[in-house]
Amino acid sequence: MSSVSERGRAGAQPTPDTFFRDRLPAVQAQLENWWAFGDQQHPCLLITVPPPASAALPDTDDLEDALEDFELNGCPIDFVAGVHPRFDRARCERFLANTQLNPRQRVRELSKGMIVQLHLALVMAIDARLLVLDEPTLGLDILYRKQFYQRLLEDYFDERKTIIVTTHQVEEIEHILTDVMFIRDGKVVLDAPMEDLGERFVEVLVDANQAEAARQLGPLDERSLPFGKTVMLFDGVSQAALSPYGETRTPGLADLFVATMKGTYA
Amino acid sequence: MNVIVDTLPETPRPTARITAARRFGWLLRREFWEHRGGFLWAPLVAGAASLVLSAMGIVLAMVAARGKFRGDTEITLHDGTSVSINGLDLNMLTSRMGHEELARLGDGIDLTLIMASGWPFLVLAFVVFFYCLGALYDERRDRSVLFWKSLPLSDGETVLSKVASAVLVAPLLATIASILTMFGFLVLVSLVVLFYGGNPVTLLWGPASPLLLSLQYLAAIPVYALWALPTVGWLLLCSSWARSKPFLWAVVLPLLAGILVAWLEFLGVLGDVTWPFFRNVVLRALTSIFPMTFMDFEYLRDVDFSLPGAARQLMSPAGVYRNLASVDLWGGVLAGAAMIFAAVRLRRWRDEG
Q1: Does B151 sit within 8 Å of A45, measured CB to CB?
Q2: Do B143 and A85 make contact, defined as CB atoms within 8 angstroms?
Q3: DSSP string across B68-100
Q4: 3-state DSSP helix/strand/coil percent for chain B, to nearest 5?
Q5: Where are the domains positioned within chain B?
Q6: Chain B interface disruption, residue of A3, A27, A83, most B CBs within 10 A
Q7: B70-125 per-position pLDDT tens digit
Q8: What pTM does this model have?
C-alpha cells in the first residue's frame, strides 16, 4: 500500500482512463480489506470520477447521476451517514448551511455549482485518511475550481490526511502538492517530491549566441521566445553549471508537464 | 517522504458503530428511494385501475339491468362471476340459500377477489423483471457506480440488497397494494348491494374470506422469493455482464439455447428434451418472477374445484409451502444463488464506461 499511502501524492494523467483503470482495483482491494476486517480506523471515501473516454461529460455528473432522484436529506446525507462510520452528519450540515442548498431539493434540480458544494460537503464530512479525487474539478467553472481546492485545504486537509488527486489541470494544484507523479501512456515518467523538483529541474533563459553551447548539456526541452532568446529545461544539471548561459529559475509544473508529455497528444 | 499513514496517531474523533444489519437496512432504503415508482406506485396504480374498471363494469351492468327488476335478474359483478338477484330483495336470497349455496356464493366472491387483486401482481412481475435487468447495468452506464463503490459497502452487500428488494420488498409492497385493492373491491360491491337494499355483511363479507386471502398472500411471499431466484439471478447476471442491451442478452440467449436444443432433437441428436429444457431452463430463467405460473402451482392438481371453498385452497399455505418439497424449487434456488454470486464478482471487476 505504500504507493498510495504517501502523503499528498498527485499524479497527472496523459491518457485520462489509464490511471484509474490500472490502479483502482488495487486501491479498492486494499480498501475492501480494511472494511472486510472491520478496521474502522481506515475507511475512506474514494470519490473516483474519471472523465469519460469520449464525450465531454463533466465529472460531477457522476455524482449527480448517482443521486439525482434523491432529496438532499435522503440519499446523499441520510444514506451516507447511515453506512459510513466516519461520516459526520453535523459537519456536513454545517457546511451546507453556508450554501444556498435547500435540504428538500432534489439533486437533479441543483445547478452545477450546487452539485460541487454537495460533493465537497460529503467529502469533507468524512474523516478519511486517504482521499482519492480523480479529476475532481473537470468541467467546472474556474470560480468553483478555485473554491474546491481552497475549501479542501482550509477545512479538511491536515497532517494526518493523504489526498491523491489526478488531474490535467496541473497549474491549479501546483501550489498545494507535496509529491507529484506524471504518467505517460500508463507508465510513471516522473515521481518526485515537490521540493526535489527545484533541485532537479532548472530552466535557463539562454541568449541566441549561447544556445549551441547550452544545447551540449542536453536540455530536456526548449522553446523559443521573441527577440532570439530560448528557454531550455534541464534535468539533473546544477544551477551553478547553468548560470553562465543565462538567467536560471525553477520551472513551473505546467512547463515541466508540457516538456515531459511532448508528443503524447500528437 | 513515503510516510506510511498507518503509523500516524489516531484521531480522537469517535467513529459511529455501524452494524451490518443497519448498513443493509440503508441499502434497502436506498433501493426503495430509487425505485419508489416501480415498487410502490405501480402496484397501487394497477390496483386503482382495476377498481375503476370494475366500477365502470358494475355501472354498465346496473344500467343494463334497470327496468328488468320485476323478473329474475343477474348482475355481473366482475370477471364473469355473477350474483343472482331475485327481484330487489337480496336479503330474501340469502335467507333462502342453504349452507352449501352460501359457500358457493363465497367461493364465487373469493375467486372474483383473487382476480380483482391480481393486477398489482402482474405489474409486480414486470417491475421486478426490469428492475433486475437494470440494477447493475444502469449504474455502470451512467458511471454512478463509482460513487456507490466509493462508500464502505461491499459488492456482496450491494447486490444482495438488490436481490432482497426484488424478491421481498417489491412483492411485499405489491401484496399490500393487492390487499387494498381487494378490500376496495369489496367496498365497491357492498355499495351496489346497499343500492339494491341488500345487506353487504350477510351477502358479501360473511361468505367471502378477504382476511384469509390477505394472510395467504402474505404467507406466500417467502415461497415466491425462493421460486423467483433463478430469474432474478439470471437477470442480475446479465445486468452486471452486458456491455450494452442487457434486455436482448437476457431474453435472446435462453431462447436461442432452447431453439438449439429443439433443433438437435429434431435432428435426432438428442432425445425428447425440448419441453423439459424449456420448462426447466428457458422459462425458469425468464418467468419465475411471475406469481402463479403453471409451474409453481403444481399442487393445484390436487385441489378439487367442485368442492365448496375451493377458491380458498388456491393460495392455501399448506399447498404453497408444498413447493418447498420440490426438487424444481431448490434446483432453481441453487442456480439463482450461483448466478447472483457471479453477478457480485462481475460487479467487482467489470470495467465501467
Answers
A1: yes
A2: no
A3: -TTSEEEEEEETTEEEEEETT-HHHHHHH--HH
A4: 75, 5, 25
A5: 26-349
A6: A83
A7: 444 455 444 444 444 333 344 444 555 666 666 777 777 888 888 888 899 999 99
A8: 0.75
